[in-house]
């Protein structure tokens, strides 16, 4: 009797070794695992998610030879290290896949890789394994990826997009180089994106037309799974502190896992927060204040004032913090995960983005969803105080909170049976069977 062809059931995941990228990809891994797929995670030698492998039972973790040490990442900065990592990882990843194929009896259904780990495309092609791109950013951001650079800005001839000044990402031409590589090396059969149609329906429709391959909005992934995948230990003492604060009174401040502030900005922030008379919970990572050892390096009076009025941690359990009844607002750098997490708990935001993608997210928060206040220009204590009061004391903040709660309900509905995530997942599963 002829043996029935079994659908391949193993998926290889390749994250970028950075928290904001690892977390959603691992959440996706959990979802796919619950649908019966086996998961192999391929990682480098640092920021290994396998350090929390106990939260991912049954997952296989494989380490490829690290072509770029952590110190190089720091030295080169985000964009250059991604370009270099991609140039130097192709060969070791191919070796890794060939080993895995032997080990798994050729049972690899597909490789899902972070869009910036585009070196995976070559291995997928060589071994004829389907590949899927995973995007940890918003659909709107994907839309803004430049093939745009030579286009003239509307009504502003001869200014081209590439002539526009940007900040925080280093030279624009290197960023464009990275985007070009991401686009040119694209051999994938589909894109999975951590977003949801109730937030970005027009960008998603645009994206579907633009990329010419199937797009699966499988977000908000953090609502599908609560396994911790934190690369650093979280300080839970802040929850006890929050328990003692009044409802909706606290501003939670985090600039993500990579953002950095100048000492001058931290001082202005400290004065503004204290002058607002609202309690605050502030994440200050080691290394997040440029050129210092942290808050201890601030002048003693400021340090004392901040410690009396607020609570400082190096790492917070962010989702739990945002869901705490004492939290009334989130001062954020507007990373996409932070936004989804904040909306998921119905918390309005104060936006102080650093660079392009975050700036775009901030615009959506302020102008489209109307649940955020942007603080523009140099950080200055009066502006900080005003923004905090607008959100926690004034009527305007209450209106934003109501809208954020409505969005929260929509997000929650999308995850339930019959919701958009639910349906997209079904479609993706079906797609996997066709590969
Ligand atoms: N995060 C956290 N505790 C902290 C700071 C950050 O758990 O003290 C998590 C946060 O919940 C989010 C991720 O780190 O999931 C940061 O991702 P995001 O996209 O917001 O920003 P990035 O760090 O990538 O710039």
TrEMBL record:
Task: Please provide, in alphabetical order, the Gene Ontology terms of the cellular component aspect for this entry.
Answer: cytoplasm; plasmodesma
Which CDD domains does the UniProt record give?
Answer: GT1_Gtf-like (cd03784)
Database matches in Pfam families = UDPGT (PF00201)
- Which InterPro entries did the record assign? UDP_glucos_trans (IPR002213)
- Looking at the keywords, is Ion transport present? no
Matches recorded under Gene3D superfamilies: Glycogen Phosphorylase B (3.40.50.2000)
Keywords tagged on the record: Glycosyltransferase, Transferase
* MF GO annotations: quercetin 3-O-glucosyltransferase activity; quercetin 7-O-glucosyltransferase activity
Protein family: Belongs to the UDP-glycosyltransferase family.
Protein name listed in UniProt: UDP-Glycosyltransferase superfamily protein
